Amino acid sequence: MKYVLTFDVGTTAMKCTLYNELFDVVFFDSSEYDLLTPEAGIAELPAQVYWETFCMSVKKMRSGGINMEQIAAVTFTTQGETLIPIDSSGQALYPAIVWIDSRAKEEARCLREQLGEDEIYRHTGAGELTGAAPVAKLMWLAKHEPKVYEKTEKFLLLEDYFIYRLTGKAVTEMSLLSSAGWFDIRNECYWGEMLEAAKLDEDKLPQICGCGEVAGNITVSAAEETGLSTKTLVTTGAMDQVASAVGAGNIREGMVTETTGTALVVGAYTASPDFENPQRITIYKDYRHGFLYMPFCNTAGIVLKWFRDTLVEELKKEAYLSGQSAYDLIDDLALQSPAGSNGLILLAHFAGKPLPSPCDLAKGVFYGMTLATTKADLARAVLEGIGYMLKEILDTLEMAGVKAEEIRSMGGGAASPLWCEIKSGICGKPIRIMQNKETTSLGAAILGAAAVGICTSVEEGVKRAVHADGPCFFKQEEIYKEKYRTYQALYRALIPVFESEAEGCLHTGL
């Protein structure tokens, strides 16, 4: 029996999953870590914390009696945009600058002005180059930590760091590079003009590989430190959202995945994206030579969490005392309100609004409240507000030529039958739930298995491992057509208000 070992390295937790050749889970472990956030806009973590968390999970797995020599591949799927500079001996020179870190806003602005946003999009697929981009972060290091920058041998992303620690080889893969800012995803190479603008030597960057390729064997020193076998191959994986699309079987045109977690992220495969689209929908490199449209909204599930913690604290207490989920109780509450929430509409843009129709200054708005409005209406309006966001994204994708025949739902939102039903009614599309909820780890396992020959291809691995036989929701509601038009009109009408409010704050010095 051969195994594939995957690590899903998230923002605050790492999931370790061991799969057998049939993609059954043999071992699972999840470990958390706390980010360092000493001031606003800063989010760091010592690289050694990632490594020690990894080693601890391997140790737990070994104690369970797993034969290390039967592990054919180790594969990683990680958050994008986390930057780690290492020296010539492989030591991290600075804490990992985590993807949500926004210290490099000014550097990103300079790059946008120098190269032009349309030109950046045509080369990188980035809908907006922000301070999260590694290219902006390394410019910040060059300015504020020049000694670190000078000593850096390689600038690595998080997946690259693990591969280097295990194999001694500095390699990276295209899906992870897609949000770096220095990768030309159309020509599958480093973008010379961006490197010149950032004053970055290409030699400081790792070798580019595809997703699901063998990087090398585990070294003797890494084997001694971790307990893994030198016979085990380390393979490239994919950025977490790309891996999740693979794990959901989203590998052909016409299928769309949506993940309602903290944010709302949509994935749609395309062989030929439109890099001239004025909406500048974010594009990632897929596991092969295709692409993945990946539009998103900043605030989705986190708005439901806000509602739970702020407006229905009594349900949170009831859930604690009864052993139930507070979110299930919110669903029960929302069921007491009809489709359309008795005229109540939520703009769920609690932290600005990205594409389409972006407005960084947008805020959350409940519209249509009367003396008859109930908490049930508020609860349902929250669920419907995220549904309208999803509908807007799907409409934008369709304008770009992407037709959604079916939506596969993932993330915490997929656990709510009511929410899935509401999204289906608003979008007019069937929504299907995946049997395996850990699609990110599964996608990484499929990539690793294909790389080492456990399955003949990613497509064959998807056929063997992905089972979209969970519940399917499709309930059309005519009232949502009218409410969606109101939702769009309301947002358009409020953009000048959002912008003028910010200008007023500037004028008053607030």
Describe this structure in words.
- With 510 residues, this protein is an alpha+beta fold.
- The strands form seven sheets. Strands 15, 16, 17, 18, 19, 22, 23 and 24 form an eight-stranded mixed beta sheet that branches. A six-stranded mixed beta sheet has the order 3-2-1-5-14-13. It has a two-stranded antiparallel sheet with strand order 4-7.
- A hairpin with a 3-residue loop joins β15 and β16 (264-270).
Concise summary:
It is built from 18 helices and 24 strands.
Question: What are its keywords?
Answer:
2 domains; Nucleotidyltransferase, domain 5; 510 residues; disordered C terminus; 24 strands; eight-stranded mixed beta sheet; globular; alpha+beta; 18 helices
> Helical segment tally?
18
Task: Write down the domain tally.
Answer: 2
- CA-based gyration radius: 23 Å
- In the CATH scheme, the class of the largest domain would be Alpha Beta
Terminal CA distance reads 64 Å
Biggest pleated-sheet summary: 8 strands, mixed
Helix content: 40-55%
